[in-house]
Amino acid sequence: MKISLKLFAVAAAFGMAPVAAVAQNAPAAAPTATAAAPAAPGAQAATAQQPIDAISANSQAQPAQPEEASLTSRDEQPSKAEVLSSSLARTQPDAEVGQPTGKLGFQPQVTPIGEEASWFHNAILLPLITAISVFVLALLLYVMIRFRRSANPTPSRTTHNTMLEIAWTLVPVLILVAIAVPSIRLLAHQYSPPKADLTVKATGNQWYWTYTYPDHGDFEIVSNMLKDEDAKKRGEPRLLAVDERVVVPVGATVKMIVTSADVIHSWGVPAFWAKVDAVPGRLNETWFKTDRPGIYYGQCFELCGARHAYMPIAVEVVTPAQFAAWVASKGGTMPGAAQPKSGDETATSPITNPGAAAAAAGPTPTAGGSATETSPEPPAITPGTSAPPVSSQGATESKRGN
Ligand SMILES: [Cu+2]
């Protein structure tokens, strides 16, 4: 019995548990991953009602290809949409921010929550822990020297000291209360996010991530890790670079809805102080907001199988205008932008008609570039569609019905 339990535990650790086995039968990184993906009832219904159209199918097919294929095709004759998306998505990362630096301590924090948390750690916890450790060490050394057998041959027979006992009970309690105040305040800030400006849904798969943008036409991107040589070619850190980054506008409050299609994963980006488990059949939520454009790397934080270490996360924070252009290049729409009225939805596809896609994207990158330098504001987002409830897809449905 014990042996079989152990075997099961080992199998589960390597992603061979029954749940995983079913998922593994599906071809990995297939463009149709969404169809089999979300196990949550709400999400499943939404996917079933929204068949993948030609646009999103096209936009998915490319990122899901093996890295070499997409690289060579890019070298030969890139389409306008590819040029657009690659010039946007291939910004160089900062070696000191958003990725491991090899230094002690946390990565530099770029979100308000991250700044609060690292202040709590650096200004309160670390000094307190150091002081207590040094104090206890000093007491031990004193006792060892002062009361050693040669210096103190006849030990005192004292067993109680009321004042001392009250003190060593009360002082630790007061220290814990002092820590609890900023700790609970931080927790409250983490779990009471401001109103979201956009929602991104991340789905963990063995072993890659898919992202959908429900506020922007529900398009999907598939994010696979780059091979070492490809990451090197692009000047990105190995094991962290991906082919398709999550792109979000600077200054916007991003609501991350996180779930899984197979086993438990965990979506997290250390520089954002954001991490949440991706559990099949559940929609977990975290959020981040940063005023600093750049590229921020994360990884799967839950041992999810053989290639657990090879499903990194890369979030690119861009100007609102660049974000709008990126959304258009992926076949999505900005909230409030004109929806295609005819049945011919490929009319605004960047693949079939790059000009129309650029027009639909609203502000052009050049016009917005100067605007963002002076005012890095979140993009204009229709209040009604900005934050659909987690469990209901009503807002998205009605928007798509237009
Ligand atoms: Cu994982």
TrEMBL record:
Residues 98-194 form the Cytochrome oxidase subunit II transmembrane region profile domain. Residues 57-108, 332-402 are annotated as: Disordered. Its EC number is 7.1.1.9. It is an enzyme of class 7 (translocase). It is a multi-pass membrane protein. CDD domains: CcO_II_C. Its cofactor is heme; Cu cation. The chain crosses the membrane at residues 124-145, 166-188. Binds a copper A center. It catalyses: 4 Fe(II)-[cytochrome c] + O2 + 8 H(+)(in) = 4 Fe(III)-[cytochrome c] + 2 H2O + 4 H(+)(out). It is found in: Cell membrane; Membrane. Residues 195-329 form the Cytochrome oxidase subunit II copper A binding domain. Residues 350-372 have a biased composition (Low complexity). Keywords: Copper, Electron transport, Membrane, Metal-binding, Oxidoreductase, Respiratory chain, Signal, Translocase, Transmembrane, Transmembrane helix, Transport. Subunits I and II form the functional core of the enzyme complex. Electrons originating in cytochrome c are transferred via heme a and Cu(A) to the binuclear center formed by heme a3 and Cu(B). NCBIfam families: CoxB. This is Cytochrome c oxidase subunit 2. It comes from Sphingomonas parva. The gene is coxB.
